[in-house]
Amino acid sequence: MDGPFIYDKFVSGKNFIGRKTECTILGNFITQGENAVIILPPKGGKTSLIQQTLFNLRMGGVQYLTGQFSVQNIRNSVKFLQRFGGAVIRMVASTPAEYADIISRHLAGTHFIFDREEFSRTDEVIAFNWDVDEEDMLAMFRLPYLLAAERQTRMILVVDEFQNVDFLEDGDLILRTMDAVLKEQGSGQLFSLIFTGSRVNAMDDIFGYRRYFYRNVERLPVSPVDEREIVDHLVKGFLSSGKVIDRNLLLGACKLFRNHLFYINHFVSLCDSRSKGYIMEPVLVEALSCIVAIYEPGFRALMDSLTTYQVSLLRAILDGHTRFSGADTVRKYHLNSSANVKRVKEALMKKEVIAFDEKDNPFIIDPLFQYWVRKYYFEMSE
């Protein structure tokens, strides 16, 4: 049975709080046949936002079919095409005969086939009779549009951790051919793609700097959930188990975790398990120590992976510096030169440790890591 504070899976319905505007915008994208991209750090609420939007659409009478696959564990283009095609075909078919029929009709002339033996062994709908080429890729990315038009049914495919396409040996070709198909199809189609990614800098590189899918994929602006709404949700959760907590203590937790709902729910669930009746500040201090202990091994491993220059720049950010190339800053933090600063910034961004806001000010992406590295690694005073 779920407790009042859920952090181990996505939420929807009464457990979904905030981001009503984002749900409305995403729902409009889908109903208008637009494609969307959602870029948030790990456990930032991407899946919950999508699932709540789909729930709202269903409640509003919109009929649709959905599919999903993740690029998280994919390291070659063949597997990407298999997962893409399999997710699309399984939206409209459920038997081997139906799979074979779709592939034979809509992927004729390509190197894609349906192999019953391989399907029984691996559960993969798509197999290959030769190496795939660019024409095969184009045909695969056109497939969902053909199926949606054939069935006159709205179809939505969610592609998680899309930035990992850059790890594929033919990643650029995948991006180019998919981009070409989206341009060819335009907006207003019955099929929509929703891309998500947790590596914010890598996703910004694909959709921003390299401008793939420009004007064919709309970026969904996602704001932090309002802290008052978070506190109201937490207070109700504690009351449901017969406990009371000072709102100011919860406001302090929201500030510490920068309104990151995964961390907040994990944190307060630890508070909930360690208390009875009225929850006092010592309970929160103990819970904070526990959550730090849980994530500390990963934080230590991350710091061990950084060079001395990267550690120095991280310290400069924690000290409040926003521009690092000045002679005084370079000298104070032993950054060697302004050219080296640029390389170090890019390295920290590639490792998804830091990012830059719209005003080009740096920030540490993970709020709990920021707390840990400040307090325990650099031993800085509050």
Shape: globular
What ranges have pLDDT less than 50 throughout 5 or more consecutive residues? none
Q: How many helices in DSSP terms?
A: 16
Task: Determine the N-to-C terminus distance.
Answer: 39 Å
Biggest beta-sheet profile: 5 strands, parallel
Secondary-structure-derived class: alpha/beta
Determine the fraction of residues in helical runs and give it as a percent range.
40-55%
Name the beta content range. 5-15%
Our Rg estimate from Cα atoms comes to 24 Å
SSE ordering:
HEHEHHEHEHEHEHEHEHHEHHHHEEH
Strand order of the largest sheet: 2-5-6-1-7
- Number-wise, the strands total 11
Provide mean pLDDT, rounded: 95
Could you explain how this protein is built, in words?
The chain is an alpha/beta fold. Helices cover 54% and strands 11% of the residues. It has 16 helices and 11 strands. It has helices at residues 20-31, 46-59, 77-92, 96-106, 116-122, 134-151, 171-185, 200-209, 227-240, 247-256, 261-273, 281-304, 308-318, 327-332, 338-350, 367-377; strands at 35-39, 65-70, 112-113, 127-128, 155-160, 191-197, 217-219, 244-245, 278-279, 354-356, 362-364. The strands form 4 sheets. A 5-stranded parallel sheet has the order 2-5-6-1-7, with helices on both faces. A two-stranded antiparallel ribbon has the order 3-4. Helix 7 (171-185) links the parallel strand 5 (155-160) and strand 6. It is globular, with a radius of gyration of 24 Å.
